[in-house]
């Protein structure tokens, strides 16, 4: 009978995903050097449901077959996004050019420290990926502690959702002046979503900056009425975006858009153009 015990489980958390939902964001790549080290340790690495599991073979006394020398051994894994839009909704740490984030348990053997930047070329285990089409966006470095052999250690790798400044450019062609001037964007879904309310400022076209879409892009004819509703603070992206962001006329007037669009995981920014047509 061959016996194995899990020494590590690595799970990913991402602010973009719904709390408590399945998070299958990353594929864990095993470089050749780690393949060899796993074989020497009589250990195996497996992925299941978005988690990495590392198991070690035990003898009849439930001790590692490879002996006490397994303690202190270090293994490396590459982190490869599973979804093409990963870079649109994920805010990776700000690092020096060419560096990738490395998460490690070398400060506390039972948790992952905040990531630090490393160059793939500086890490022998990662050099195989320098010219690879499957180049990882980050690295995981784990060292075996004696306690891991008795009790499976669960590590959590946290990922942060990107933040965007929501901007809604409303273009009315034609549209009554008084009604257009009364337009507002309101957030009526904050309480139901369990999040802070999003407040918008109205910005006139003559106050647009280079960061905004220009009026010639919004209306090449020059005849439309234009207003920008810009959030006062950035909003973190969510798989299920903020609900009940409404465009309406005044406090009690008609609702012209019951749900304005939000970036989700497909758009490069949080800017949207809303066209209105009302004689």
SSE layout and pairing:
Layout: E1 3-14, E2 26-29, H1 32-40, E3 43-48, E4 51-58, E5 74-81, H2 86-89, E6 90-91, E7 100-104, E8 116-118, E9 138-143, H3 146-150, E10 153-161, E11 163-164, E12 167-172, H4 177-181, E13 183-187, H5 190-193, E14 200-203, H6 215-218, E15 225-231, E16 235-236, E17 245-249, E18 255-257, E19 271-276
Parallel strand pairs: 1-10, 7-9, 12-19
Antiparallel strand pairs: 1-4, 2-5, 3-4, 5-9, 6-10, 7-8, 11-16, 12-15, 13-17, 14-15, 17-18
What's this model, at a glance?
The protein has helices spanning 32-40, 86-89, 146-150, 177-181, 190-193, 215-218, and strands at residues 3-14, 26-29, 43-48, 51-58, 74-81, 90-91, 100-104, 116-118, 138-143, 153-161, 163-164, 167-172, 183-187, 200-203, 225-231, 235-236, 245-249, 255-257, 271-276. It is mainly beta and 279 residues long. The mean pLDDT is 94.
Please provide a written account of the structure.
The chain is mainly beta and 279 residues long. The chain has 2 domains: 3-161, no CATH class; 163-276, Immunoglobulin-like. Helices cover 11% and strands 37% of the residues. The chain has helices at 32-40, 86-89, 146-150, 177-181, 190-193, 215-218, and strands at residues 3-14, 26-29, 43-48, 51-58, 74-81, 90-91, 100-104, 116-118, 138-143, 153-161, 163-164, 167-172, 183-187, 200-203, 225-231, 235-236, 245-249, 255-257, 271-276. The strands form 5 sheets. It has a 5-stranded mixed beta sheet with strand order 3-4-1-10-6. Strands 2-5-9-7-8 form a 5-stranded mixed beta sheet. A hairpin with a 5-residue loop joins strand 17 and strand 18 (255-257).
